[in-house]
Amino acid sequence: MRIPLERRAVGGGRVPLSRQIQSHLERLIREGKLAPGVKLLATRELAHDLGVNRTTVATAYEELIAAGWARAHVGQGTFVAERVPALAEPAPISAQKLDWSGFLSKRAQVVAADMHRRRAYGQLARPAPGTISFAGGMPDSTLFPTDAFRRVLNRVITQEGRELLQYYAPGGYPPLRRYLAGYLLRFGVEARPEDILIVNGSQQGFDLVARTLLDPGDLVAIEQPSYPRAMQVFRSFGAALVPVPLTEAGLSVPHLERLLERQTPKFLYCQPSAHNPTGLTMSLAVRQRLLEVAARHRLPIVEDGFDGTLFYGARPPGPLKAMDMAGLVVYIGTFSKILFPGLRLGWIVAPPALIERLEMAKQLADIHTSPLLQAAVYHFCERRLLERHQARALREYARRRETLLDGLRRLMPPGVTWTETAGGFSLLLTLPEGLETAALLPRAQARGVTFTPGDAFFIDGGGERSLRLSFSAVPVSQIDDGMKRLGDAIRDLGRHPDHAVREPELSVPLV
Ligand SMILES: Cc1ncc(COP(=O)(O)O)c(C=O)c1O
Prior knowledge:
The chain is an alpha/beta fold. It has helices at 17-30, 43-50, 54-66, 106-125, 146-164, 174-185, 201-213, 228-236, 253-262, 284-297, 352-366, 371-382, 385-411, 437-446, 476-495; strands at 70-73, 77-80, 132-133, 196-199, 219-224, 240-247, 250-251, 267-270, 301-304, 329-334, 346-349, 417-418, 426-430, 449-450, 452-453, 466-470. Strands 4-11-10-9-8-5-6-7 form an eight-stranded mixed beta sheet, sandwiched between helices. β12 (417-418) and β13 form a beta hairpin. α5 crosses α12, α9 (253-262) runs parallel beside α10 (284-297) and α14 (437-446) packs across α15 (476-495). The chain binds pyridoxal-5'-phosphate. Pyridoxal-5'-phosphate binds next to α7.
């Protein structure tokens, strides 16, 4: 560690070295640069680094402890106190320090505007303990097969560690690409391993597609409602989003056709199965019509295949990619919902000319996705552990979905409607005319239930009466209670519709 020390006497005398060390460390702690609980360097080590006597450092540490900035743990060392004396003030931006806001790219400004709205939502969404949360459409981590994954990971690192911890090919771990080619065949998608690019989750897929296909000012056609994080990415590359309304059977192809007569979007982004937020499935007829229209207008389709295996009841038709004779479809898949989102592991299937470009973009972005995790997931899948986990998790999600739909039917006031989710983790609920979600959320949270406001899933306005309920992470035993609380909050809002005003800055959810 470096601490600038003034060793010469200046003017009237010299500030003792221990005092200089103490002040320097105190400032680092105050500014949060030495975080609570962090261990300070051993006195011997710091003395060596600074070229001072060990007792000098020991004196500085004692002073820090006496003032409450640090704590000594006998036999373990000195640690930054968990709670420091004065609340750390953000350091004032001095006149000499560069003001970075003047240097931000347009892209960073677009991202910041979107993120700002999300943060505002995040504040509201931080529920009190005991709140039943239907927000955040993520898998239930209590169902994760962590032990089985740990065993596979241990074996992989033991057997292939040297190779997998080295720089790696950007396309991905070959056995995983081969496995995915076989996996996708089950859904009718025919892809060679080299047509598959391994990425850090679908999110990176959106980013690479946007980087490779979009120029500022381009149009992207998108189902409405749709997944906010995909919208954010396309917007951040300067694209304008053009909504195509969703029907019970999938996106409205006649609407898209009319749109294509007037405008030329670079591509269409859609989620044909397990749609987030509605849980709806695009019917086979709509899929066929869509592909016909897209082929006629030479419209590329970015298919978010997230996640066709999570369905309840009738199996969804195969992905658009499986029916794509004209080479129009880029398919993006992920292990996030069927396994662990924290792995950040997904894939893109695209025609050869495009996959090569996407791989170049990937190489620039992060060189490659962790080969260690790719190998672990490959071996996990090879041992059929994914299938076992999927079957178990799906049974549980199906129970939760059934319980939620049943609770909605019994406990919602008249006029409330919702989508009959057929796949994925959520459904979209719509409030009766005159009531708005933004006014409902605080009332619902006061009653101990929360959800994701629906406006986040709509493009520039719309969805003010809608909200997303995710059932995947709510235990069956809590769902009915959650619906009672929500029903009561809606009735309460209905009795005081004058309060049903929109709160500002309410937006994008996490997933
Ligand atoms: C529709 C949709 N696509 C993609 C993703 C992101 O997946 P990933 O974790 O692979 O980035 C999500 C996450 O919830 C999603 O809902």
